[in-house]
Specification:
By secondary structure, this protein is of the alpha+beta class. The chain has two domains: 197 residues, no CATH class; 242 residues, no CATH class. 39% of the residues lie in helices and 31% in strands. Strands 1, 2, 5, 6, 9, 10, 12, 14 and 17 form a nine-stranded mixed sheet that branches. Strands 8-7-11-4-3-13-16-15 form an eight-stranded mixed sheet. Strand 15 and strand 16 form a beta hairpin. The longest helix has 43 residues. It is elongated, with a radius of gyration of 36 Å. The C terminus is likely disordered.
């Protein structure tokens, strides 16, 4: 049975499309497992505390504006009566100086195959409020009265508060109460303060500690006119995020330390807090935080490997085809398909093994299994132990290149481009003297062919001159 060269290429392309369907199904499976993992992490967070976001401290001073006007009496002509109109609002004052020292202790909580990073944070706040006086100017026939001030701290998930904190305000010790009293940021704590007169200049120092528990991420809002934040944690793979990255950081296998310093000119937090708490802004911007990530996430690595899967299979089929062209070792399209199926199953093995083993070990086991199977099969397909082992060694080298590509995050594109260029150059060099027209007329397969009752030799398969 004879095949033209282009018919053979078309059949190989068809086999590749069928394999691509299998790879797409494995890709969907990876996405499904990632979604299930995220669901388990959400369940763990729901049973402990979610990622924590702290906003504060903010000094809230309620006030009432009273305006007195005269209007004619309804029943007595020429007589005027006094009418009083009241409107209530609040002042939101931010610290002039704020220092936050944070210690984060992390642990992993497992549920089945999946795990989440749970942290406990010990935070020490200290700072100073400085009021210059007269933030509000009463108009004519107008009077402003101030209500009971309170200090609020927004906590996104108050279930994570481990113990009731106490506020040191000037020389007084005050207890925090649950809730903030703010509709837009209801979750948190508040402390009712002695009366202050915002119309007069004053300065007050404060300090308090907060023990907090959460899952996966922690962030704070730098609400001070001048804010200094220091974090220390035991997680070796922190991912810093937010509007400001750390000014200094040090990451070691034992943990990390990081510091931030911001000013009101850079953060514009006074405007952000006012617009956010008054409902004019969707999400509070300018947060500073850290996520506790798994850099060797098996699903991310498997998904990254799948992105190179068609390229990987294409390189393997190209090597097959070069064997046919250069050594006249005819290979049936079905044998292409079986070899490709083994390569597709490599990704399924990698996914399933990586859920129980480390990704590197899972990759090594899946590679060894796939290379051994393909090498054994090709010993008989290519008609010799040397050919089978040679192709197996080549396949193992390609697996090694693939592992390097998925491990290099910053240089993956460069390494992949250079690898492709190298393979293309090698194929062009090896086939530079091939007469493709002659090959198209003489290429034949050995699957069902024999010459005089025996398998055809490479010399007998060569096209006639």
């Amino acid at each position: 049975m004879k095949y033209g060269l282009f018919v053979k290429i078309a059949l190989i392309f068809l086999v590749t499309l069928v394999l691509a369907i299998g790879l797409a199904q494995i890709s969907f499976l990876v996405s499904e497992r990632m979604a299930r993992r995220d669901g388990v992490v959400a369940e763990i967070a729901a049973s402990t505390a979610r990622g924590q976001v702290l906003v504060g401290p903010v000094l809230v001073v309620p006030y009432t504006r009273i305006i007195k006007t005269l209007k004619p009496a309804d029943k007595e002509e020429g007589k005027m009566i006094e009418v009083e109109k009241r409107s209530s609002d609040r002042l939101l004052l931010l610290p002039a100086e704020l220092d936050i020292q944070t210690r984060l202790n992390t642990e992993t909580v497992r549920r089945g195959l999946y795990q989440a990073v749970v942290f406990s944070a010990t935070l020490a706040f200290k700072g100073r409020f400085i009021a210059e006086g007269a933030p509000l100017q009463p108009g004519e026939n107008e009077r402003i009265t101030y209500g009971e001030p309170r200090l609020i701290v927004g906590v996104s998930d108050p279930r994570g508060i481990l113990r009731a904190p106490a506020l040191h305000w000037a020389e007084q010790r005050l207890e925090f109460l649950p809730g903030t009293g703010e509709e837009r940021m209801a979750n948190g704590i508040q402390a009712r303060l002695p009366s202050v007169d915002p119309q007069q200049p004053w300065t007050t120092e404060f300090a308090f500690s907060l023990d907090l528990r959460g899952t996966q991420s922690f962030s704070v809002a730098p609400v001070g006119d001048a804010t200094h934040i220091a974090m220390q944690g035991g997680w070796p793979h922190p991912s810093f995020f937010g509007q400001f990255l750390p000014e200094t950081r040090q990451v070691t296998p034992e943990g990390f330390t990081a510091t931030w310093a911001t000013t009101r000119l850079a953060a514009n937090m006074d405007h952000q807090i006012n617009t956010y708490l008054r409902g004019n802004q969707g999400l509070l911007q300018g947060l500073i935080g850290v996520r506790f990530i798994e850099p060797a996430d098996s699903y991310v690595q498997s998904d990254r490997a799948l992105k190179y899967s068609l390229l990987f299979i294409g390189l393997s089929f190209t090597a097959f085809f070069l064997f046919e062209v250069l050594k006249r070792l005819a290979i049936h399209p079905l044998q292409y398909g079986l070899t490709g199926a083994a390569l597709v199953l490599f990704y399924l093995l990698l996914l399933s093994l990586s859920e129980h083993l480390g990704f590197a070990l899972a990759y090594g086991v899946a590679t060894a299994a796939c290379v051994a199977l393909v090498s054994y099969y090709l010993v008989y397909v290519l008609g010799g132990i040397g050919w089978g082992l040679s192709f197996g060694a080549l396949l193992g080298g390609v697996f090694g290149i693939l592992y390097v590509l998925i491990s290099l995050e910053d240089y993956a594109l460069l390494a992949g481009s250079l690898t492709l260029f190298g393979f293309l150059a090698l194929a062009m060099v090896l086939t530079r003297k091939v007469d493709w027209y002659q090959l198209s007329d003489g290429l034949q397969h050995r699957v069902d062919q024999s010459v005089n009752g025996r398998p055809a030799s490479p010399e007998e398969l060569m096209p006639a001159p």
